[in-house]
Specification:
alpha+beta; four-stranded mixed sheet; 188 residues; 12% strand; single chain
C-alpha cells in the first residue's frame, strides 16, 4: 500500500511539471480576433522565438511602463512561437510558420516578424517596410524590432493608421523604440 501511495505521489508530482503544448496558431489568432472585436481594438500579431534577442527587445519595448498601456488600450497583442532551435521545437505553436506565410511573411526572412490586423484579419501592414517607390516590402526589408529612425517612423505610421493613439502618445512610443538602436561601433 505504501508503495502504491508513493507511486501515485511521484506520478502526480511529475504531472505537475509536465509542459503543456502551445495552442495551435489558428486557436491563438481566432481568440485574438474575438477579443479585439469585443474590445474594439486591433491586433498585433508577433512571430518570435525564445532565442531571438531582437524579439525580446520588441516585447520589452511594447511592455515598457511608458508604452504598455498605450499598446494595451489599442491592441490585442499575441505571440506565435516559430523557428525554435533543435530540442526546443516543443515551444512552437503548431502551424505558426504557415500562418506567417499566410500574411506574406517568410520564415527565412528573420524574426521578429509582426503584422497589424483588424478584428476580421485584414492587415494594415507588416514589418516588411516597402523600399522607396514600392508599395510592398519583402523579407529583406524586415525591420523586425524597429530601432533606426526610418524603421521607427514606418512602425509609427502603421500604429497611427490602426489606432486612436494621439500624436503625443505616438511620440512616447517613438522615443522608446529609438532607444533600441545599437550603439555605434565606429571608433573615428
Amino acid at each position: 500500500m505504501k508503495t502504491l501511495f508513493a507511486l501515485i505521489l511521484v506520478l502526480v508530482s511529475l504531472g505537475s511539471f509536465a509542459q503543456t503544448a502551445p495552442d495551435p496558431s489558428t486557436t491563438v489568432l481566432n481568440a485574438a480576433y474575438a477579443k479585439a472585436q469585443s474590445e474594439h481594438k486591433n491586433v498585433i500579431l508577433m512571430f518570435h522565438a525564445s532565442w531571438c534577442g531582437w524579439c525580446k527587445k520588441m516585447e520589452a519595448s511594447i511592455n515598457d511602463p511608458e508604452c504598455q498601456k498605450l499598446f494595451s488600450d489599442n491592441y490585442v497583442i499575441v505571440y506565435l512561437d516559430i523557428l525554435e532551435r533543435a530540442g526546443k521545437e516543443n515551444l512552437e505553436n503548431p502551424d505558426g510558420a504557415d500562418v506567417m506565410k499566410s500574411f506574406n511573411g517568410d520564415p527565412n526572412g528573420g524574426i521578429p516578424f509582426w503584422v497589424i490586423l483588424d478584428p476580421s484579419g485584414k492587415a494594415f501592414g507588416n514589418s516588411y517596410k516597402p523600399p522607396v517607390g514600392s508599395s510592398v516590402g519583402t523579407a529583406k526589408d524586415n525591420v523586425g524590432c524597429p530601432a533606426e529612425a526610418d524603421e521607427v517612423a514606418y512602425f509609427i505610421s502603421l500604429l497611427k493608421s490602426s489606432s486612436k493613439l494621439s500624436d503625443a502618445q505616438l511620440a512616447v512610443i517613438k522615443n522608446r523604440f529609438l532607444k533600441n538602436k545599437p550603439a555605434s561601433t565606429n571608433a573615428n
